[in-house]
Amino acid sequence: MPIVTPAKYREMFAAARNGRYAYPAINATSSSTLLAALEGFSEAESDGIIQVSYGGAEFASGQSNKSMSIGAQALAEFAHVVAEQYPANIALHTDHCPPDRVDGFIRPLLEISRSRMADGLGPLFQSHMLDASSIPMEENLALASELLDKCADLGIILELEIGIVGGVEDTTDHERIDPTKLYTSPDDMVQVSEVLGTFDRGHYLLAAVFGNVHGVYKPGAVKLDPKILRDGQAAVAQRFGEEARHYLVFHGGSGSTLGEIHETLSYGVIKMNIDTDGQYAYTRPIVDHVMTNYSGVLKVDGDVADKKTYDPRSYMRKAEKGMTARVVEACTSLKSAGMTLR
User: Fold this and answer.
1) pLDDT by residue (tens digit) across 103-132?
2) Which CATH architecture has domain 6-333?
3) Is 100 a catalytic site residue?
4) HEC states along the chain?
5) Domain spans of the chain?
6) pLDDT single digits (tens) 42-82
7) Which of 87, 132, 227, 282 is 20 to 30 A from 165 (CA-CA)?
8) Which of 95, 188, 275, 277 is the catalytic position?
């Protein structure tokens, strides 16, 4: 199927909220990881989201003249071509853009989408994330409000974050952040609705935090309090009505138990980011390949080595299969498996 239209994307989110499931949002940094995500969604018969962070986009642009917008455009254009071979509905998203990178990341991509739509095509990306959680709430929402209008004009969905996800994401380090900032209050969630509206101005997603931390952790090591989402949603519904409940995003899921994940689905989480786990699932088979085929990969003692084992396709395909399996696992955990809106 082609990359989804804005209308189809909104339909996906409504279906997820009504059905109490969520879409894995898989970070891609290359054509290979992007293909692994597509294959995973297809195997799971799940619709899904492939996202590109500013760091991943910069990496994809090449190292001689790094450009976040060019790298993101290249990966998105590739996705628009190859996604038609797969049966799942796929949306493209940019992840975690801080305020100081908006001009070099989100704004140029919005202009590309505007040009595409003038030519009768859909937007390049179907959603963009502003992560202005590090600045005061009023400034965060003011910038989000401006971007919401620009996105809505193109049918694009905006994602924003209030409160701070701990740990490290790309070059953003929140390892030593004030712990109180890791939890969003009900008043914060109500304030978002006051400033951005209740989807009358445009659709948006909200990453509210409840102890989330980016990085690698064992289950139980992260102290989550999902009921923060429940209480925030109740406050929004009381003030604006049930239909104003937020479409929530779960960031920093490593170390979360399956019970905690399922609890968040009941409170309106419809998107969960998968990055760290996908990286490991991709890399682990490469390590196994190299260690198992050591004498074939390397020219040991002057030998000629074995082309079949050092051909990048041999180990990259194994890497893709490893990541694909992790995507299928994510779809199963988030209950989106078998729920594709074909």
Assistant:
1) 999 999 999 999 999 999 999 999 999 999
2) Alpha-Beta Barrel (3.20)
3) no
4) CCCCCHHHHHHHHHHHHHHCCCEEEEECCCHHHHHHHHHHHHHHCCCEEEEEEHHHHHHHCCCCCCCHHHHHHHHHHHHHHHHHHCCCCEEEEEEEECHHHCCCCHHHHHHHHHHHHHCCCCCCCCEEEECCCCCCHHHHHHHHHHHHHHHHCCCCEEEEEECCCEEEECCEEECCCCHHHHECCHHHHHHHHHHHCCCCCCCEEEEECECCECCCCCCCCCCCCCHHHHHHHHHHHHHHCHHHCCCEEECCCCCCCHHHHHHHHHCCEEEEEECHHHHHHHHHHHHHHHHHCHHHHCCHHHCCCCHHHHCHHHHHHHHHHHHHHHHHHHHHHCCCCCCCCC
5) 6-333
6) 999 999 999 999 999 999 999 888 999 999 999 999 999 99
7) 282
8) 95
